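Write out this protein's structure.
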Amino acid sequence: QVQLVESGGGLVQPGGSLRLSCVASGSILIIYNMGWYRQAPGKQRELVATITNGGSTNYADSVKGRFTISRDNAKNTMYLQMNSLKPEDTAVYYCNAARVLRGVPYDYWGQGTQVTVSS
């Protein structure tokens, strides 16, 4: 069982930056592939960025070049550095941890942190 807690959200002006954190407890983070997802009002949850337990990263086209995902396995923490924020980045951001063990998928989510980009 993994518990995930996000932090770092808030209100920021367009062009500003925020750094989200996701702290895991209950298991070691290194065995999981991790990701950030977001959900805007009236829209489906969408992938923002993922990072494998080996450190390979993947980004949605809409955030490439602006967002950076990283992880510190020693601290059981994952980060999302968000730069050049746009109003369309406004959403609740969720942390995800996933793995498959003996053919059984395990999928965990945090409670979300609100990011609002507005002047």
